[in-house]
Amino acid sequence: MNIFILSVGENIYSTHRLVQEAKKLKHNVRVINHAECSVKLGIGKPQIIFEGKNILDIPDIIIPRIGASVSRHGAAIVKEFEMNGVFSTARSLGILRAQNKVRTLQIMNRKNIPIPQTVFSINHKNINEQIELLGGPPVIIKLQEGTQGMGVIIAESKKSAKSIMDTFYTMNASFLLQEYIEESNGEDIRIIVVGNKIVASMKRKGAIGEFRSNIHRGGTGEIANLTEVEKNIALRATKYLSLPVAGVDIIRSKKGPLLLEVNASPGLQGIEAYTQINVAYHIIKFSEDYVREKIQKRNHRN
């Protein structure tokens, strides 16, 4: 099969691993920089132009690795492939939903998936009210489209919270407030869902003095043993966001597990290293099996 990995760089660990596993399974694989793709619409069939050629009809499978900086353009490229009947491991709508933390949490809350107490507003005049809605400090302040722990700040006092929020309002940055889960002790759990299965999970712990648990922020990891409730949260979350492949982050609290966010392009380096599970293989094999089954069903109908 022809597989396109939409990524801004071939040397990124996750992209490289997906290429490796696709080649091992005898697929034709190519890395396409979605930021360098153009879409042509109008008379005739739509086209996706990359390096001067129309590539729309080439792939059987696309695996989007869309970063926050070009998420809207990347999702538009994915959408064009989708409308041409190409299977994607992350649907365009799911990419945009997952990229926006507020939108994700709204959907999760609607579907009765437990989340931390959350407040968001664009009214800079009611900062005190927003903080008090969470029971006062400490509170977590998050940029709505931050990644890898960037744009996540803990405010220990009302004064520091107001200062940070004032700054974000001045910058016209979209952010949200969440309750601080003290008992989590700087730990969370990353769960990788592929298809309707959980293929890997790890507990991440922040570096000493760091409340963020992201591996990119110096955290460490270990294999996580999931409860049935945690498994259910992860599988439902990816289903509701239309993401066949995704990373789900949850935090353990006195109230039970709470969903933090869903990542449409989860990094593979940390979880493969700490769990020794070949996640890249699972992604390629799932995609191959899905498309092959789809082709068989179509041929059977004909």
Could you give the order of the helices and strands? EHEEEEEHEHHEHEEHEEEEHEEHH
CATH architecture of the largest domain: 2-Layer Sandwich
As residue ranges, the low-confidence spans are none
CATH class of the largest domain: Alpha Beta
- Radius of gyration, rounded? 20 Å
InterPro entries: ATP-grasp (IPR011761), ATP-grasp_RimK-type (IPR013651), ATP_grasp_subdomain_1 (IPR013815), Rimk_N (IPR041107), Rp_bS6_RimK/Lys_biosynth_LsyX (IPR004666)
Keywords: ATP-binding, Ligase, Magnesium, Manganese, Metal-binding, Nucleotide-binding, Protein biosynthesis
Protein name: RimK family alpha-L-glutamate ligase
GO molecular function: ATP binding; metal ion binding; ribosomal S6-glutamic acid ligase activity
Notes on the structure:
The structure is a single chain. This protein has 302 residues and is an alpha+beta fold. The protein has 3 domains: 2-90, Rossmann fold; 98-114 and 183-281, ATP-grasp fold, B domain (D-amino Acid Aminotransferase, Chain A, domain 1, 2-Layer Sandwich); 118-180, 2-Layer Sandwich (Dna Ligase, domain 1). 35% of the residues lie in helices and 26% in strands. It contains 9 helices and 16 strands. The strands form 4 sheets. Strands 14-13-12-15-16 form a 5-stranded antiparallel β-sheet, sandwiched between helices. The protein is globular, with a radius of gyration of 20 Å. The relative contact order is 0.14.
